[in-house]
């Protein structure tokens, strides 16, 4: 009885503090709509608790995704206002869908009360910057809120994450621009812009980890032992597959559990493409981001297929993911290291090429037509002669020949 009472108190506190965070950071017209939307996602969970089928999950997921696409493509107030709450509403929808999907395979799961649900949705530690945390982890650890068992270690790790976050911010906004200021080659500028975008992402990711730890020390201590991002694995990837995994680990986990697995009946390749489509719709089908996500999806498929065939033909550990336990004859020979190094360099180039598309410092005129905007968006890739796409097309032809 006491545990339930304490849980309700913590959930109410989570709701109130989360709404206070929204009111502080978001303009009034948008904050009201965001609160209504996040609260209305409870209807998804209630519907799926009554109709526990995968079809009901697909229907609710589609409705939520179409809402995000509509808000992205046809802003009700303005593009600047929508950008304030885009990420907040996306995280909220992911949380609601993660609860709803459990009803499709867990017949004993009960629908959470409105207080429990909104306490999860409005939890201030993950409301603005994320990361996504599952409802079961959040709910089971409600009683653990309070000072961590090792306060000094918790404080040290939190300060370290904040320092790391602002270090990435300084490198993104100042250091890289200074290092590349004397270079005029378009490919050097491509590397610079892509580095600035990636390190700004590292800043947000580390900041989200720190915010979650500050909002719930014991929750973060027990639940978020895995970081949101692993920059070293991204800057020096074995393959683009690793970039997809380590770019946003909680997002990857959510997409794997709530997009890939439900569509697994279509087959691995189609389920993977559907996962990238869901990811693109979560981001509102923004053309630039969608072009990058679809390209990455195709790139990963091509690279994965080629390296699987090479591993079989050469009997070597050259797969897209490292072999933990395998029967390959060639594991650490020079030829194996050379092949893996070539694909690492290819991934670094592709990552820089794709990254320039995410540069939003230059904006097109709002009065331009739809196709004019697309033409402008493709300008950076056109300046690079679509080199990465042609390179991966060649790799795809090699895949057909193997």
SS elements, strand count: 0
Oligomer: single chain
Shape: globular
- Helix content estimate: over 70%
* SSE order: HHHHHHHHHHHHHHHHHHHH
Main sheet overview: none
Main structural class: mainly alpha
What is the C-alpha radius of gyration, as a whole number of Å? 22 Å
Low-pLDDT residue spans: none
Mean pLDDT, to the nearest integer, reads 84
Q: Which strand-content bin applies to the residues?
A: under 5%
Number of DSSP helical runs: 20
First and last CA, distance: 65 Å
Short description:
With 402 residues, the chain is mainly alpha-helical.
Detailed description of the structure:
The chain is globular, with a radius of gyration of 22 Å. The chain has helices at residues 2-25, 28-40, 42-50, 54-73, 79-102, 114-121, 124-127, 135-140, 151-179, 186-215, 217-223, 231-235, 240-247, 249-260, 268-282, 287-314, 334-355, 370-377, 379-383, 387-401. It contains 20 helices and no strands.
Write the layout of secondary structure elements.
Blueprint: H1 2-25, H2 28-40, H3 42-50, H4 54-73, H5 79-102, H6 114-121, H7 124-127, H8 135-140, H9 151-179, H10 186-215, H11 217-223, H12 231-235, H13 240-247, H14 249-260, H15 268-282, H16 287-314, H17 334-355, H18 370-377, H19 379-383, H20 387-401
Helix pairs in contact: 1-6, 2-5, 3-5, 4-5, 9-10, 10-11, 10-17, 14-15, 15-16, 16-20
């Amino acid at each position: 009885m006491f545990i339930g009472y304490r849980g309700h108190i913590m959930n109410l506190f989570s709701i109130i503090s989360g709404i206070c965070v929204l009111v502080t950071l978001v303009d009034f017209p948008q904050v009201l709509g965001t609160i209504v939307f996040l609260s209305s996602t409870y209807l998804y969970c209630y519907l799926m608790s009554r109709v526990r089928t995968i079809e009901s999950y697909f229907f609710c997921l589609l409705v939520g995704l179409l809402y995000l696409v509509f808000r992205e493509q046809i802003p009700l107030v303005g593009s600047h206002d929508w950008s304030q709450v885009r990420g907040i509403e996306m995280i909220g929808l992911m949380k609601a869908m993660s609860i709803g999907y459990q009803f499709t395979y867990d017949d004993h799961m009960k629908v959470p009360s409105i207080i429990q649900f909104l306490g999860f949705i409005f939890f201030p530690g993950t409301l603005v910057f994320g990361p996504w945390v599952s409802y079961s982890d959040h709910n089971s650890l409600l009683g653990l809120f309070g000072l961590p068992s090792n306060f000094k270690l918790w404080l040290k790790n939190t300060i370290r994450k904040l320092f790391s976050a602002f270090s990435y911010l300084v490198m993104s906004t100042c250091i890289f621009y200074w290092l590349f200021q004397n270079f005029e080659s378009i490919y050097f500028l491509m590397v610079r812009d892509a580095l600035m975008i990636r390190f700004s992402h590292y800043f947000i990711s580390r900041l989200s980890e720190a915010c979650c730890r500050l909002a719930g020390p014991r929750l973060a201590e027990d639940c978020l032992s895995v970081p949101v991002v692993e920059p070293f694995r991204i800057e020096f990837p074995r393959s683009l597959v690793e970039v997809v995994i380590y770019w946003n680990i909680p997002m990857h986990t959510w997409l794997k559990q709530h997009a890939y697995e439900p569509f697994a009946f279509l087959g691995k390749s189609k389920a993977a493409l559907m996962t990238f489509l869901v990811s693109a719709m979560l981001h509102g089908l923004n053309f630039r981001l969608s072009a990058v996500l679809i390209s990455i999806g195709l790139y990963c498929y091509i690279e994965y297929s080629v390296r699987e065939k090479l591993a079989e033909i050469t009997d070597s550990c050259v797969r897209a993911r490292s072999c933990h336990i395998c029967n390959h004859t060639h594991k650490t020979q020079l030829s194996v290291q050379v092949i893996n190094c070539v694909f690492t360099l290819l991934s670094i180039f592709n990552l820089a090429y794709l990254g320039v598309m995410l540069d939003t410092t230059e904006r097109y005129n709002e009065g331009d037509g739809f196709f004019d905007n697309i033409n402008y968006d493709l300008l950076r890739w056109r300046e690079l002669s679509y080199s990465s796409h042609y390179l991966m097309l060649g790799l795809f032809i090699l895949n057909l020949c193997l």
